[in-house]
């Protein structure tokens, strides 16, 4: 949808609310379809947002997904170093943190699990998924993934198509059953339902609320001055800890909804303090000098 269409579709949900100095977003199903690159409309709106305030993206995904889903798209739409300086990246629920470092994005910290914690989490997820009949044999890539800071169970594999993932657990019952079975086996770890087919295990107390609290000190922005946008603010959802933390939240259903919301939010924010993004020069075909006749 074009920005004008988005503006027309927008139905005036932003009322007089405190003006945030930082807006944080979930990634999958908030800024982009699950595991997919940001649509151009969302990338352009984020760049407009960066001209005005600081922006954070926090997700269960790894940095590699931030690179392909977010950064590649923002760069293609004209991300400048000045705008990049206002961007905070929190992969794996904020257990890792990346900032612009002049030449690219550098890792500022990573809170990894111990080898014993990772082994216990992998074993509990596999055993309980098999016991509950949730261990699928036809998958798209590995079901269990050791991300260092997080162990992730993806019922159909990391690369499963969106339709298959949506059909696997439409009511969320299967994920909830697995989470409830695994959590008591890992009392020192946090067990949480992640995306549509996934369960994430992290160090206890390390979830998106942890990341947002870290962000408050790292960015020097009080939680009261932040706004969080996510698609899973429901009870048990992976965005819920941010709401429970007391951060002002806005619930969305997919990136189109987010684009509509941002289109309405932008005019309520401070005037831009940075220049517009500059679209990169199109790559011209190499000119081969013609040989003298
Ligand atoms: Mg999400």
TrEMBL record:
Its EC number is 5.4.2.8. GO terms for cellular component: cytoplasm. Its main location: cytoplasm. It is found in: Cytoplasm. Mg(2+) binds at residues 26, 28, 231, 244. It is an enzyme of class 5 (isomerase). The active site is at residues 26, 28. Alpha-D-mannose 1-phosphate binds at residues 147, 198, 200. Residues 269-293 are annotated as: Disordered. Homodimer. Belongs to the eukaryotic PMM family. NCBIfam families: HAD-SF-IIB. This is phosphomannomutase.
């Amino acid at each position: 949808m074009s920005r004008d269409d988005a503006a027309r579709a927008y139905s005036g949900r932003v009322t007089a609310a405190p003006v945030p100095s930082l807006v944080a977003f979930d990634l999958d199903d908030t800024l982009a379809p699950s595991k997919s690159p940001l649509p151009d409309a969302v990338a352009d709106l984020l760049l407009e947002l960066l001209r005005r305030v600081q922006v954070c993206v926090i997700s269960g995904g790894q940095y590699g997904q931030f690179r392909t889903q977010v950064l590649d798209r923002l760069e293609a739409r004209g991300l400048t170093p000045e705008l990049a300086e206002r961007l905070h990246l929190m992969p794996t629920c904020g257990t890792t943190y990346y900032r612009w470092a002049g030449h690219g994005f550098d890792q500022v910290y990573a809170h990894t699990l111990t080898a014993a914690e990772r082994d216990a989490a992998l074993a509990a997820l596999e055993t309980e998924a098999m016991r509950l009949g949730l261990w699928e044999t036809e998958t798209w890539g590995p079901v269990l993934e050791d991300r260092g800071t997080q162990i992730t169970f993806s019922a159909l594999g990391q690369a499963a198509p969106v339709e298959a993932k949506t059909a696997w657990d439409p009511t969320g019952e299967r994920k909830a059953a697995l989470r409830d079975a695994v959590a008591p086996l890992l009392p020192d770890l946090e067990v949480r339902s992640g995306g549509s087919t996934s369960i994430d295990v992290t160090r206890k107390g390390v979830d998106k609320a942890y990341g947002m609290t870290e962000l408050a000190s790292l960015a020097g922005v009080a939680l009261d001055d932040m706004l969080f946008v996510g698609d899973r603010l429901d009870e048990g959802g992976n965005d819920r800890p941010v709401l429970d933390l007391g951060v002002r939240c806005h619930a969305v259903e997919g990136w189109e909804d987010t684009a509509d919301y941002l289109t309405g939010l932008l005019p309520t924010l401070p005037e831009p303090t940075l220049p517009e993004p500059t679209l990169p020069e199109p790559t011209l075909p190499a000119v081969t000098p013609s040989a003298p006749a």
